[in-house]
Each structure stands twice: as C-alpha cells, then as structure tokens.
Write a structure and sequence with these properties.
With about 180 residues, the protein is an alpha/beta fold. Helices cover about 35% and strands about 20% of the residues.
Length: about 180
C-alpha cells in the first residue's frame, strides 16, 4: 500500500463501519476487526521507508534524516542549504520540473530563521510572464543544468555549486566566482 491507496481506503471505510456495526454483537464482527488489526501490523511497524521498529526507526532518526529515508541525496541538499544561507542575498530563483523535490530546501530556509524569497524562474509555459519584475541574485536548479553559466534577464550567473541533482548559479555581484 502507498499514499495512492489512501483515497480507496477512505471510500471503503463507511461501508466497512456500517457492516461491522450490524455485526457488532456477533463473533463475525469481532473476527473481522481482529483480522484487520492483525494484517495492519506489518505495514504499521515494518514499513520499509519509515519503520517504527529496527535500527533506522523514525523514533531514533532526526527529522532531517527522515526526509531522505527513500532518497539517498541528503548530502547535496545539506551542502546546498549551507551555500544558500552563506549568500548575502535574499532573492533566490528556482528552476525545477513539474515533480521536483524542493521541500527540503524550503525546510532548511525556514528553519534558519532567515527571510529568503524563492520564486520559480526560467519557466517554460505561459506563467513565465510573471517573471519580468523578479531578479534573483542566485538561481537554484533541482536538476542538472548544462554549462558553467546561465543568463537571466541580461544578468550572468556563474555555477558555484553542483552535486547531483542540484546546481546553484550565483550572480557576479554576489560572489558568483568559485
């Protein structure tokens, strides 16, 4: 079962409750409840991504590590966050695809207490018209971008960090040299 099964389980729940309610005094109702509880145990305690028991259980892992339980990219996100927080600017452009995993970046920025403004840039659809008034001092890409530099609204940004799958390009005005 995955998160995609959740809507199905929610839809089936009222029928299950009504069915069990009509058999609440009989053995059949109790047998069904016990069986459902028994079959839920492996998924509850031995979930391969976020287990409740074992050496890597969620009770022993810190929150940051839990974000990466099923994605082995903690080091790039951690190092990128340190680079972003070291920049003397607050306007960050974000280049991503439709299903990019940018959540850890937002968590890191929010937990730092620093006020950063992150906005999508280099958008390839009609919403790219909204980019006109935004000039970032750095652009973060959640997938590999080719080249050592990019140009955005006439400004040159130099690649200052790359670790699969993340890239960071920084304006020359803000230390965009390696």
């Amino acid at each position: 079962p995955s998160r995609l099964h959740l809507p199905l389980f929610i839809l089936v729940m009222p029928a299950t409750v009504l069915s069990l309610g009509s058999h609440s005094k009989s053995r059949l109702g109790w047998i069904v409840v016990i069986l459902l509880a028994f079959f839920a145990i492996p998924y509850l305690f031995m979930n391969p991504i976020r287990p409740l028991v074992g050496p890597k259980n969620i009770l022993r892992q810190d929150r940051w590590s839990q974000y990466f339980m099923d994605r082995p990219v903690m080091v790039p996100y951690t190092e990128l966050g340190e680079k972003l927080l070291a920049l003397p600017c607050e306007r960050i452009g974000l280049v991503s695809y439709h299903d990019a995993w940018e959540y850890p970046i937002w968590v890191q920025m929010q937990s730092s207490g620093r006020q950063l403004f992150i906005q999508d840039v280099l958008v390839r659809n009609i919403s790219n018209q909204l980019e006109k008034d935004f000039m970032p001092c750095a652009i973060l890409a959640t997938y590999p971008l080719e080249g050592e530099r990019i140009e955005y609204h006439g400004e040159v940004l130099i690649k200052s960090f790359y670790m699969e799958p993340l890239s960071l390009f920084v304006s020359l005005d803000y230390g965009g040299l390696r």
